[in-house]
Each structure stands twice: as C-alpha cells, then as structure tokens.
Amino acid sequence: MFAFYKKHNDKLYNKLVExxxxxxxxxxxxxxxxxxxxxxxxxxHLAIILKINxxxxxxxxxxxxxxxxxxxxxxxxxxxxxxxxxxxxTMKSLSKIFYDILYNLDKKDFIxxxxxxxxxxxxxxxxxxxxxxxxxxxxxxxxEFQNFCFDLDINSVLNGSLNFKYR
Length: 167
Known about the structure:
By secondary structure, the protein is mainly α.
C-alpha cells in the first residue's frame, strides 16, 4: 500500500536545470524556451557527465544519477498536469532522445561537438533553418562544458558542484 523510495540528493538535478536555463541559449542562440528544449539541454549536460565519469565510477553510481534525473523530470511533467498516459508517452520519447545523445557521444569517432555538429542540429535546429553560426556557438559551449567536467570528482558532481560559467 505504501511505497518507500530511496531519498535522493537533488542538487545535481537542480544544477542541470540551472544550466539549461542559461539566457545564452534563448537570447543568443534563439532556442525556443520550452520544456522540451530545457529537457534536451539537461540531457546533453548529463550525457557529458556520464560519459566522462563512466571509467571513474561504477555503474551503480551512474545508474543512481540517471534514475534521480529521470524521476525529477517525471515529477515535473506531472506538475504540468499531464495525465498518466501523456506522462508515459513523454517519458518514453525523452528516454529515446537521451539514449540517442549518449550513444552518439560514446562513439569512437566522436571527438568534439564542433566536429560532430549533426547531433546539435538534430535536436535544436531541425525545425528551423540550419544556422551554422548558432550551431558553432552551441558546439563551443558544449565542448567547453565537456572540458570543464574532465577535472571534476564524481562526488562533487553528485553534490551539484558544477560551477561552470560560459563566457
């Protein structure tokens, strides 16, 4: 009758949300300010973190991070007053997007976002005319975030200590 859930630290999720709400994305890159855009931005940041920490920490810790982020996203979708069917459909769609991003980042030929801008265009500029300048700016942002994350300890990541500032 009663379910007991393992308490999670939401600091990482809150930091990822903060990063996804950076005005840079919406003012300079003209991304639409929607739930879906913010979710995909969270996924790009999370995929980078998981990719980098894949060898540093065990799968169990990374699974806890994944579960926590997706549980928070599901809660936010429910707060938007979506019904159970819409929540399940949306979560399935978002999961596919996340795994596609993670899969593409994990490919051996993936060097940088600037060299592999197809992933950025696929999720951000597919519905509008492909703007090379905006794609390049977003690629540079993600590459800088990736470089920033290389020196982070997984425990500081879990505590939301991602003090990344893009110039």
